[in-house]
Amino acid sequence: MGVDEDSEQEFKSQKIKPASDDDKRKKKITPGSLMKALMRPGSGEKTPSDGDQVMYHCTIRTLDGVVVESTRAELGGKGTPIRQVLGKSKMILGLLEGFPTMFNGEVAMFKMKPELHYGEENCPVTVADGFPKDDELHFEIELIEFSKVKVISEDLGVLKKVTEEGQGWETPREPYEIKAWILAKSGDGKLIVSHTQGEPFFFTFGKSEVPNGLEMGIGTMSRGEKAVIYVTSKYLTQCPLIPTLEDIEEVHFEVELVHFVQVRDVLGDGRLIKRRIRDGRGEFPMDCPLRDSLLHVHYKGMLLNAEKTVFYDTKVDNNGQPLEFRSGEGLVPEGFEMCTRLMLPGEIALVTCPPDYAYDKFPRPANVPQGADIQWEIELLDYEKQKDWTGFNFREIMEDVEKIKGTGNRLFKEGKYELAKAKYEHVLREFNHVNPQDDEEGKEFSNTRNLLHLNVAACFLKMGEPRKSIEACNKVIPVSN
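== peptidylprolyl isomerase ==
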């Protein structure tokens, strides 16, 4: 197929990446305005590029050798290297052009005319009054190291360098429980705190037990990952890990995320908490029984009193047999089912549940008082997904529909209108893929679909949503005889 030349040119122009501000600045560089002299060769084959963090010492001198400014302690500086991210940090033009020519460990002298350093018109980096920004200057740069980093905060106050990849994709979040080896050093390399022997440091995510910036960085790590997290003073909040933070401008945290326990605030108000105490098989949440399934579980139910009184244990009170139930049918307390849907096969979880999601709205065991907070220790042995209708003939589909509809009717009679509605709506969604083969099947199909819409309408009416009930009724399609 031929392509019109004008169209092809237009297509190509759309793919051209617009020039960045740094690219536009580089066009100001003229021959002779930036000169480089190698003082010590570096190592390796790669040089820094956009997205790399560069760590370097910098000493600025006049052309006759007078030190104007330095990061080195022996020359009056603080001894702390500068950290910047190419393409992200504000940087003088000479270094923006110079760093991509350097190797790890290299020391180079850059001779810059004023327009290549702080004398540049509209320079994004400011200097103190009295700085000779209108003079030609020497910049001695030691590139200590460069590496790819993940930008955690947009202002570059928190960065992460991965030194060893972790396993899986799940990362911690509030209120997960974390175990990690942590070594903290100041920007100039002085040890601040070390938790690298004995037991890993334990903390709960979201409880301000580690500096905010460190928690932000750990929140991007997977289990087993090793990383260096660079945190500036803005994100160094006081906490048990580092009680004193005076005069610390930045901290480099060397972290190994040993383990984290998935803790979920299921309702979002702190009342229904699921805490994983043994990992299951597979990946969360893809391998969880999120959809209605047949589940096999062992569980132990306890009152949240001082004695942690056990009121039921399947391994004792059910002849050692697990509980078998179908989710979505109101066969277990709501809090129990909500948490079980978030479990992996083989997982053991400890669930703390308020009374309104436990037994206050469910047939209550004789030894469970009204209004009791409950704790369940649940082990999900396995589950069977609800079968789909692939390969079913029309009669087999309709027989399955009657079973699901019957469950919905039972739930409706029990006053569990939300669950009943979910059953009816599930069938209606699946009906979108059913194609009756003759008039008789078509009539049965239409009648059943209309009845399901009316059942949904009845549920909405009981739930106090008359407008939605009317909308469901309007979906009924008359069937001709």
